[in-house]
């Protein structure tokens, strides 16, 4: 297999970054979404955040099962694949810090303590190793206001 011509073709077509994500495939049409929150919502802390998933199943981190993954919640940061480290983050483990919450046990919701003001949220499904699928399964970024 000739990798360089294939990568060159992706480059010419503008198919870079998020499309060349981790090695774990995601099925066509798979998506993650917020079940109980809408963009522009005003809420009180703690905020109940319920994760939705269609076209795939949830499995704990470390589980090597086709068409599964586990949730990650990105808080107050650029959308997946954008920002200072955007090009690298779709190919590597999602970090663990205040802006990246992991749900490696297969959890599908959280009560999230947030300070008053505006916050952005995005859901990203990670594979057994916390790496986004290929193509990535990520929600739109929503903005909520905490009273």
Total tally of structural domains: 1
Give the proportion of residues in helices: 10-25%
Q: Do you know the CATH architecture? A: Sandwich
Task: List low-pLDDT spans.
Answer: 1-20
Overview of this structure, please?
This protein has one domain (3-146): Immunoglobulin-like (Sandwich). The chain is mainly beta. The longest helix is centred in the N-terminal third of the chain and has 11 residues, at 3-13. It contains two helices and nine strands, in the order H-E-E-E-E-E-H-E-E-E-E. The termini are far apart.
What's the arrangement of secondary structure elements?
Blueprint (H helix, E strand, L loop, with lengths): L2 H11 L17 E4 L7 E2 L3 E8 L2 E2 L9 E8 L10 H4 L10 E3 L6 E4 L4 E10 L15 E5 L1
